[in-house]
Amino acid sequence: MTTKKADYTVAFASLKQVLGKVEKRLAVKTDTKTEYALVTKSPSPYPQHKGQPMWFGCVRLGKAYASFHLLPLYMNPALTKTIAPALRKRMQGKACFNFKDVPEKDALAELKRLTDAGLKEWAKQKFL
Known about the structure:
- The chain is an alpha+beta fold.
- It is built from 5 helices and 8 strands.
């Protein structure tokens, strides 16, 4: 089966819906056809990195896949250990998952669980 650019666009839209469910607690940094990014609100007392709001997550549409980045994973090894094996196969680096096709319902549910857990952890750390 040959994957088409349209498949990546549908994957991007599906992944954006997952991340978009936590938008109210964060600030939208970017919302375009190819990128959707959420960061901490600013100004202080919200945490910053080098004077800029901290990235929470991002969905990007690339040339060969759609990617879902979830920065709380990078900061929380215990949460990373809970990633389901099927989703772990899509992992690139410490906080990114790549999709060359439309994500399965199980993958979307797992990303939602991880996103909610990451948001809960950031709230506990007073990052929100």
